[in-house]
Specification:
- The chain is mainly β and 215 residues long.
- It folds into 2 domains: 16-120, 3 Solenoid (UDP N-Acetylglucosamine Acyltransferase, domain 1), CATH 2.160.10; 138-215, no CATH class.
- The protein contains 3 helices and 22 strands.
- It has a 15-stranded mixed sheet that branches. A 7-stranded parallel sheet has the order 3-6-9-12-15-18-20, with no helix packed on it.
């Protein structure tokens, strides 16, 4: 163990006081998450509320925030990767995250300010500024790619982005803008710019002609 000076100890104590006041784990408690097999790359820049239900083998890069207000529920499975800038804030309601998901790189937000739910399955990918709000349901393998604000949307389950057959993958939203009240089926994608129109839904193989040709 690296020895700390009285000045460092005083600084850590002050930081912990602020963390506890905000309902977050102390730096030592954050480091202790590694005992569950989680990888904590920078405990001083990782903020996790004390009430978060956290599984094993998750990877946390610097600058991640997972905040759950009293009475809110955040449950995270195993094997998830939270890239720098991933932020989950829950004032009320429930956020449920499965296993082996990728949140980032490029930023990710999940936010609930009122009663409701966000549900994310397993092997999903949300990156490059993707934002999920109340009523977002991502089945296994679903993807949100780009700075898209998603609310009350259902993305069906399927294979992950690594699935060789694009039309067997989970539903995908890609582009930029706001997506509201949409259902994206297995193997389907909507690419939007500003708005996302259900009339624009396409098979994912449309964007992967080589895979389509090889099928």
């Amino acid at each position: 163990m690296v020895a700390t000076s009285p000045t460092q100890e005083s600084l850590f104590s002050a930081q912990d006081g602020q963390r506890l006041a905000g309902g977050f784990l102390t730096i030592a408690q954050t480091l202790a998450l590694a005992e569950l097999g989680n990888l904590v790359l920078d405990a001083s820049s990782l903020l996790i509320s004390a009430g978060v239900r956290l599984g094993v083998a998750n990877r946390f890069y610097p600058g991640v925030v997972i905040e759950a207000a009293p009475g809110a529920v955040v449950t995270i499975g195993r094997g998830n990767t939270f890239w720098p800038g991933a932020v989950i804030t829950v004032r009320a309601g429930t956020v449920t995250i499965g296993n082996d998901n990728q949140f980032g790189p490029g930023g990710f937000t999940a936010s609930l300010d009122e009663a409701g739910a966000i549900s994310i399955g397993s092997r999903c990918r949300c990156r490059d500024g993707a934002s999920l709000f109340r009523g977002s349901v991502l089945g296994d393998g679903a993807q949100v790619l780009g700075p898209i604000q998603v609310q009350d949307c259902f993305l069906a389950a399927g294979g992950s982005f690594a699935e060789p057959a694009p039309d067997a993958r989970g539903g995908v939203l890609k582009g930029v803008g706001r997506a509201r009240h949409l259902t994206i089926g297995r193997g389907q994608v909507i690419e939007g710019s500003g708005r996302f129109d259900p009339a624009d839904v396409k098979p994912q193989s449309f964007h992967h002609p080589s895979a389509r040709a090889g099928s």
